[in-house]
Amino acid sequence: MTVSRLRQHFQLFSHWPFLTLRATEQSHQSYHRHQHECVSLGLITEGETDCLLGPQSHRLEQGDMVLIPAHLPHACNPPPGAQRSYLMLFVEEAWLVTQLGGDPACDTYRCDESVFKEGEQTDEMARWLRRLCQGEEHDLAVLLQFFIQHGRLGLRPAHTELLTSTEQIAKLAAREGLSREGFIRRIRREYGLPPHTLRNNQRIELAKRLIQQGDKLADVALAVGFGDQSQLHRHFVHFSAATPGQYRKSLFAKK
Q: How would CATH label the architecture of 165-251?
C-alpha cells in the first residue's frame, strides 16, 4: 500500500491552535529517523511498534504511550510484516514552555521518562487523547498535568535556526570556527542526524506550518528552500509518511 492510500488523518483545533493530532489506522508504513519541532505524545491503539528514541529501542504494545521531546531523533515502526494503529499529538513547544513558566527563546521541554506501559499511569491520558480525536474533549488540565509530572525545563539547543539557512555546510562551519568535518561531527553529536538530513527535516517542519496556514503547495516548496514541488513531496513522505497533499486535504476536510 502506498502512503497516499493509508487510513490516516490530521486534525487542527481552532480553540487550541498549538495542537495537531494525527490518527493512523492499520499502517505497515515505516518512518526514517527524524525529529519534530513540537513535543510529541503517542498512544498505540492497536498492534505493536518498535520505537527508537535516540540510541535506545523500545517495543510498544497496544495501550502503551511514548513522550518525545522536540528535536530528539526517533523512528517508530511496526515489526516486519505487521501493522499498527496510533494517535500522535503534536504540541507546540513554545506554548508548553510558556505554560510551565519558561522562556521559549532559551528554554526547552525535557522528558524525565519517555515510555509508559499500559496501566494506571497512562489510562487517564489515553482516554483524553481518544476524546480529543472524537471532538469530545474541551479541557487541557489532564494534558498539562501529564507534562508537568513527566518532564521539566532545560536549555534550548544552539543550532536549530542555523540549519534552516540556505548557506552551504562549509560556510556554516566557518561561521562557527570549525572545519566542515568538525561541524558535521558536532551537529551529529548534538542532534543525532547529519546537517543535510537535519536541514531537510526542519524544512518539512516549516512546510507543515505553512500548509496549516493555507499556503499553496508550490509556494510552500519554494518558501522552505526546495527547488520544486516534487522535492517537497519526496522529502515530506520521507520524514512524515504522508504526502503534502494528503496532509493538506486532511487538515482542511470538513469534520
A: Orthogonal Bundle (1.10)
For 128-152, what is each residue's pLDDT tens digit? 999 999 988 889 999 999 999 999 9
Tell me which architecture the domain covering 3-155 has in CATH: Sandwich (2.60)
pTM of the model: 0.86
The packing angle between helices 229-240 and 195-212, to 10°, is: 100
pLDDT digits (tens, 9 = 90+) for 173-183: 887 788 888 88
Task: Show the cell assigned to 87.
Answer: 494517535
Which residues have C-beta within 8 Å of that of residue 239, sequence separation ≥ 6? 31, 32, 34, 200, 201, 204
Residue 172, pLDDT above cutoff 80: no
Counting Cα atoms < 13 Å in the Cβ hemisphere of 77 gives 16
DSSP class of residue 94? H
Task: Kindly write down the DSSP assignment for every residue of 119-173, as one continuous string.
Answer: SHHHHHHHHHHHHHHTT-----HHHHHHHHHHEEEEEPPSSTTGGGS-S-HHHHH
Return d(Cα 148, Cα 61) in angstroms, integer: 24
Domain span(s) for CATH 2.60.120.10 in the chain: 3-155
Task: Produce one character per residue of 135-170: b if its CB has 16 or more CB atoms within 10 Å, e if not.
Answer: eebeeeeebeebbeebbebeebeebbebbeeeeebe
Q: In this structure, which amino acid lies at residue 122?
A: T
Tell me: pLDDT of 77 over 80: yes
